[in-house]
Amino acid sequence: MDISILEEIGLTKSETNVYLALLELGSTSTGKIVDKSGAASSKIYEILDRLMQKGLVSYVIKNGVKYFEAAPPERIMDYMEEKEEHFQKQKNKLKNILPELELKRTLSKYKSEATIYKGIKGVETAFYSALDLLEDGDEMLVTGIPKRTDVLNRFFLKFGKEREKRNILMRALFNEDAKNDAQIAAVFSEIKFMSQTTPAAINIFNNRVLIFPETEENLLISIDSKEVAESFRVQFEMQWNQDTNTTTGFENVTTKFDNMLEELKEGDEYYVLGASLELKDQKMNDWTDEFHKKRFEQKKKVKFLTSYEAYDLVKNSVMRYGDKNLEITKMKRLSPEFSAPFQINLWKGDRVWFTFWEKDMRCFEILSKDAYNHFKKYFDALWNQETMAVKGFDNLKFLLRGFIDELKENNEDYLAIGAGFGPKASERKYLDFFKENAAYRNKLGVNSKLLFQQGMEQTVKERKKYLDNPEIKHLPYSTKTPVSIMPSKDKTLLIIQDKEPTTVVIENELIGKAFIENFNSLWNQKTAIYEGLDKVKQLMLEMVNYGDYKVIAEGNNYLFKTLGRKFFDEWQEKKKELGVKSQGVTEYEYKGQYMITKSTANFRFIKDHKSPATTFIFKDRIITINFSDRPIANMIHDTQVANDYRIYFETLWNKAEK
Length: 658
What we know:
The protein has about 650 residues and is an alpha/beta fold. The chain has 6 domains: about 5-70, Arc Repressor Mutant, subunit A (Orthogonal Bundle); about 75-105; about 110-240, 2-Layer Sandwich (Endonuclease, Chain A); about 245-385, Endonuclease Chain A (Endonuclease, Chain A, 2-Layer Sandwich); about 390-525, Endonuclease Chain A (Endonuclease, Chain A), CATH 3.30.870; about 530-655, Endonuclease, Chain A (2-Layer Sandwich). Helices cover about 45% and strands about 25% of the residues. A 7-stranded mixed β-sheet has the order 3-9-8-7-4-5-6. The longest helix has about 35 residues, at about 75-110. It is elongated and about 135 Å long.
């Protein structure tokens, strides 16, 4: 085993030997460690202490004796990460002072040309003296203006008025943290803001440069040098024309957002693509609270296109802060398949921000009207998109959970046209999914009305436990489409029940309203048509589950010939098992025939009663079956109609002979 790597990451040779010895010995006293590692007994406690500081060794006391043991080898990686984090902090600190070091190096070249000013009076003298170097129409440049004290703010406002009076133009680059300073109120030709913080403001007046660091004693350095002034002027133009910059760290990024809010006027709107409130600490939560409270108070508008899973978090946050009717906060969900590690903010017509809400926060800014317009078109396309399609059970779960939440919020029922349990190959997945979905609806108290595919009566009865007691009916027509339709007042879901479901979401109020009307029409419809021999057989088997019935022309020869003896016998057996009692009226010519003698019904016979159809009357419905090459059954679900047929049946029954 190559153990040199342990020395390379910071362990001494003696520390490495002691740690390896402890790994083999387990919990032990110093004597055995010395023997095993070869370390000097006079140094062993010092070595163990260093290892404990690194988190690689610990000890317990037994009977007054210290027993040392090695930490798990995985702790070495923790030690490495701690060293790496410490190194990164040192690197950042060094990075922060580099400009100051560079400034010292630059000034060393021009000591003979530099003048030092101290105190507010010295600052005034330096600036007014430099201003005298400029003539009407000349321009001064300033980069890296920091946040100033009240005393300095008052001076710069006064200085600005004098500059304006002399018609001296000015372009200025402010640090981000100075956006709310009073000095911003001075008249400038143009201003911009820098995301990075500079150690000093650089003021360029022709060939004079005033370097004004942010110090308590108001120290200012004046350099008269054409070379230095030109060097800083080139640097200024590069920064001025730069259309991208980066802001890092919690304080800087949140300050940037606070400043955005201050720049927007009442009624202005900004846009957020991929909004998320998956915050990682209380500090971030508190800042977000304060940000949105201010936004509501100042009536600044926003449109959120949220990641699908973040929608409820964002909306609950908005509702908590007071925008009950979402008047200044508009929200829509992105597709569950939309995934990005950042959010995009668009504002002011030329600002595009990419923000990473991570432990080390970062915000990349693009200052470009073209970039803004490009992303705004993309945002608008997603915002105005009325349909989206996604695949898979996970995405369907996301969509349905959000859909049910909205139904609960709007006090709507969960409606389904053409409900089913998926194809046989994936039936178990669909059953488990619908069971979970039904439990969630029930938990929220959302009422469910399901219109199942025609012919699924027995299947639904067997699997009703998966549905959590919804209201159930069946479509009045036959369809082979695997699509289930779930409408609400402003959104409709289409679920294509294939091996893996495909879900189509339509966000359109007119379409939602049309499908709800269609559902209500189908739900309240009193007639249903069943076509084909298989459908008719299934309907007859389902019918006997409702109990006793009456039949007109049950013995009709068309019935027997079409259904066949095998089915006829099975049907009779089922009626016997269920104890179904029935009465029938049919023609004389069928008396004594198989379909009469083997029937469980009590028959009477009537003369001159020819009918090509058989009519069953049970509970609050009737079924009329017309037999031909393709039999058709018509079911009417109406109590009054069923009672009228019962009266008609009794009239025939009383006329008929046994």
